[in-house]
């Protein structure tokens, strides 16, 4: 899908036409773009009316009548009477100011919550660094390794004077980021191997295994894979071995992501001109040298934009662990809502959560599009 | 065959034996553990449980169901039907909404283009599960049946879901449907004959009067001759709830709303890029041949755009079907939900998961096969 969009991202005619019109001043612009015909005028007026109504009522609900803080009783229980009275008239953002630490960091010990906060910053830093083309070299893998180890140390603790925190207490945004990032980090090498296996002509048995794996995983919903991890995994292990719930979900994610990424990588391998491989063969390179030095560096570069899009998908999909009872960002939102005084303010919490997801996904998709443009520039002239 | 490491054939065989061996060993190890664990927990494997009485209460079902007597097998069939009910209607609605929004993004009207772009950008960036939960709580927060929002006395939207009138089905309606099916066949034959004649003589005979007669007039006449029965069963408020009419449960309604609006945002992008992928020269060239706009769109642009649109559209249809499994989070009883209840009640984890996977693999493969056939039919025939 992203390849389809890639081919049309750079259609300059519309942009040029717009620029020319814009230079004639706002009235000319409005006449061309808002009141071009009677049909266009009608659409503009109707939409303008609806948008204005919606924005005004949203503003009144979300800002004018909104409640930002509520008083607390002596026992520390929030008194949400003001919010209850304003229900439907004004937003109760007080639930977010009251619960934001719980939603973001889960049941992690309160005085230790600077640790997951640093973890979140580390992850964002890792994404930013990986996104900069200046840093696209082998050392980046090392940066990933170091960051992921640092994340582990910070979250678990137990060394360097950090008190130990069991993963039962992890929750919120770090879980979402861990599932998505570790999922990608481990699924990617798997995906490359599977994609190569699926393309191989000399190893029919291996090819069949890869096709089976990819098609089965892609044919079933993620929930089925997660259920499998949570229900069947304990049966797979020898008696007495108990694998943690988070790790089980992580393995499910890696297997799931591996199949999808394998198809993305295969797309890159297919897009590479055949002559590259043949030339490498003619030079007498072995299979692994040919693949490692000639094929993969070019093929992977081709698939970076769809790779980012796939990653955005996984980032959103991590919310599905709600169904198997892991405490990611979305689940923590629901946990916050289970507190009796706050129970009826789900809209506010869902809007807050949506904004967090939008912030991450929008940044990544914006980046992916700019990257697509940059990478295409060299090919399109 | 010489057994030498420098022989590629020998190497290939060795590698395959090694890799398949490793995978096989892991599989064997897992299966052995599983059977030991099952034996330790006294769980019998096999699908015998399908014949036992289920006792799962099911809210909505397309076939009659009584939890006291019906079996797990029946419950699972209901789950499959519910999944299909979501998938089929969802695909149709999402395609319509997505196409409208995709064309809206290409509009010359700045406001419309920006609004549809905003829709696409926002909905794509919020996890579907979050959207479903959001819609579900909104629907649950609606007023009760007595204060429901209504459209005349036809449709009522309350926290019990959406109430809509249903047509009282009579024999005349079945006959009219049959007449319509005959009409389709007649139209298809007329179309084919017109094409043969066009290929032979260059002149295409007019088909639309035949089509109109066969598809509209014929069923209407059949229906009128049989007495033109038309009676709607309206939902009526009695006491605390509605009687009569059909119900879209809040769960189904929320699931539909979430799935359709979410998938439509992806379909909109596919439609937009499909139309934009056709060079403007195609419009101009067709215009130069003297074709009018509608004909250009139908005969020149759409057939080409469809080639770009079909493959990604297929994967969106598959995604919608697979995403319908999120129903379990808001309590709509699709196959995942019912299979999950079944495996919790019976302890048949492996069989339960196997049922889910088999159902989705079957649906996915069917959609793929159909769309591949359609794609091959419209694909550009090269050399």
Walk me through this protein's architecture.
The complex is a heterodimer of chains A (381) and B (383). Chain A has two domains: 12-64, no CATH class; 111-380, MetI-like fold, CATH 1.10.3720. Chain A is built from 17 helices and no strands. Chain A has helices spanning 2-8, 12-22, 26-33, 38-64, 81-85, 94-105, 114-131, 139-156, 173-199, 204-219, 222-236, 245-271, 274-282, 287-302, 304-317, 329-337, 346-380. In chain A, helix 9 packs across helix 15 (304-317) and helix 15 runs antiparallel to helix 17 (346-380). In chain A, 32% of the residues are buried. Chain B is of the alpha+beta class and 383 residues long. Chain B folds into two domains: 72-165 and 249-378, MetI-like fold (Orthogonal Bundle), CATH 1.10.3720.10; 173-225. Chain B is 67% helix and 6% strand. In chain B, the strands form three sheets. A four-stranded antiparallel β-sheet of chain B has the order 1-2-3-8. Chain B has a two-stranded antiparallel sheet with strand order 4-5. The longest helix of chain B is centred in the first third of the chain and has 34 residues, at 72-105. The mean pLDDT of chain B is 84. The interface between A and B is large, with 60 and 67 residues.
């Amino acid at each position: 899908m992203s390849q389809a969009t890639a081919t049309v991202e750079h259609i300059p005619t519309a942009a040029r036409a717009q620029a020319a019109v814009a230079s004639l001043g706002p009235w000319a612009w409005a006449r061309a773009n808002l009141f071009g015909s009677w049909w266009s005028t009608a659409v503009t007026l109707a939409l303008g009316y609806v948008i204005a109504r919606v924005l005004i009522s949203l503003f009144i609900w979300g800002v004018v009548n909104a409640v930002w803080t509520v008083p607390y009783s002596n026992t520390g229980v929030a008194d949400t009477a003001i919010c209850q009275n304003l229900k439907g008239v004004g937003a109760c953002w007080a639930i977010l100011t009251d619960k934001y630490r719980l939603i973001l960091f889960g049941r992690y010990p309160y005085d230790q919550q600077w640790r997951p906060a640093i973890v979140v910053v580390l992850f964002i830093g890792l994404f930013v660094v990986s996104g900069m083309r200046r840093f696209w070299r082998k050392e980046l893998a090392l940066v990933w390794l170091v960051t992921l180890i640092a994340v582990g140390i910070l979250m678990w603790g137990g060394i360097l004077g950090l008190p130990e925190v069991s993963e039962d207490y992890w929750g919120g945004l770090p879980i979402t980021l861990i599932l998505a990032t570790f999922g990608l980090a481990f699924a990617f090498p798997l995906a490359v191997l599977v994609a190569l296996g699926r393309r191989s002509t000399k190893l029919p048995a291996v090819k069949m295994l890869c096709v089976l794996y990819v098609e089965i995983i892609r044919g079933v919903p993620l929930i089925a894979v997660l259920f499998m991890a949570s229900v069947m995994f304990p049966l797979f292990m020898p008696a007495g071995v108990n694998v943690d719930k988070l790790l089980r979900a992580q393995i499910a994610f890696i297997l799931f992501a591996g199949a999808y990424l394998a198809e993305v990588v295969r797309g890159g391998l297919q897009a590479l001109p055949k002559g590259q491989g043949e030339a490498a063969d003619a030079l007498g390179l072995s299979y692994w040298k040919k693949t490692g030095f000639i094929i993969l560096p070019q093929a992977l570069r081709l698939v970076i934009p769809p790779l980012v899009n796939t990653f955005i998908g996984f980032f959103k999909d991590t919310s599905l662990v709600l169904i198997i009872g892991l405490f990611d960002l979305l689940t923590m939102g629901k946990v916050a809502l289970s507190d009796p005084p706050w129970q009826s303010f789900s809209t506010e919490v869902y809007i807050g959560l949506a904004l967090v997801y939008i912030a991450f996904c929008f940044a990544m998709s914006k980046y992916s599009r700019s990257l697509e443009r940059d990478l295409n520039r060299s090919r399109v002239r | 065959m010489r057994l030498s490491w420098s022989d590629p054939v020998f190497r290939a065989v060795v590698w395959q034996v090694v890799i398949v061996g490793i995978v096989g060993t892991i599989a064997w190890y897992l299966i052995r553990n599983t059977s030991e664990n099952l034996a330790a927990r006294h769980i019998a494997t096999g699908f015998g449980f399908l014949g036992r009485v289920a006792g799962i209460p099911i809210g909505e079902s397309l076939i009659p169901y009584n939890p006291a007597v019906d079996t797990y097998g029946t419950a699972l069939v209901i789950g499959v039907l519910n999944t299909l009910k979501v998938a089929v209607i969802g695909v149709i609605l999402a395609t319509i909404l997505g196409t409208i929004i995709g064309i809206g993004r290409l509009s010359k009207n700045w406001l419309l283009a920006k609004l549809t772009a905003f829709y696409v950008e926002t909905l794509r960036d919020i996890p579907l599960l979050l959207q479903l939960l959001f819609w579900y709580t909104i629907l649950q927060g609606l007023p009760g049946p007595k204060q429901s929002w209504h459209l005349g006395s036809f449709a009522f939207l309350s926290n019990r879901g959406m109430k809509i009138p249903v047509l009282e089905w009579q024999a005349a309606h079945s006959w009219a449907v049959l007449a319509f099916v005959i009409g389709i066949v007649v139209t298809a034959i007329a179309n084919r004959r017109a094409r043969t004649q066009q290929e032979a003589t260059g002149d295409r005979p007019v088909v639309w009067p035949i089509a109109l007669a066969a598809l509209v007039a014929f069923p209407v006449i059949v229906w009128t001759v049989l007495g033109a029965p038309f009676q709607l069963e309206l939902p009526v408020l009695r006491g605390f709830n509605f009687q009569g009419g059909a119900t879209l449960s809040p769960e189904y309604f929320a699931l539909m709303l979430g799935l359709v609006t979410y998938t439509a945002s992806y379909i909109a992008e596919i439609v937009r890029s499909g139309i934009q992928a056709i060079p403007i020269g195609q419009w101009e060239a067709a215009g130069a041949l003297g074709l009018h706009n509608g004909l250009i769109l139908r005969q020149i642009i759409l057939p080409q755009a469809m080639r770009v649109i079909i493959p990604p559209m297929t994967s969106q249809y598959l995604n919608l079907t697979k995403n319908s499994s999120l129903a379990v989070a808001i309590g709509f009883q699709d196959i995942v939900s019912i299979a999950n209840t079944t495996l919790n009640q019976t302890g048949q984890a492996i069989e339960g998961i196997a049922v889910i996977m088999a159902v989705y693999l079957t649906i996915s493969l069917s959609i793929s096969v159909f769309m591949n056939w359609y794609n091959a039919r419209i694909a550009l025939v090269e050399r």
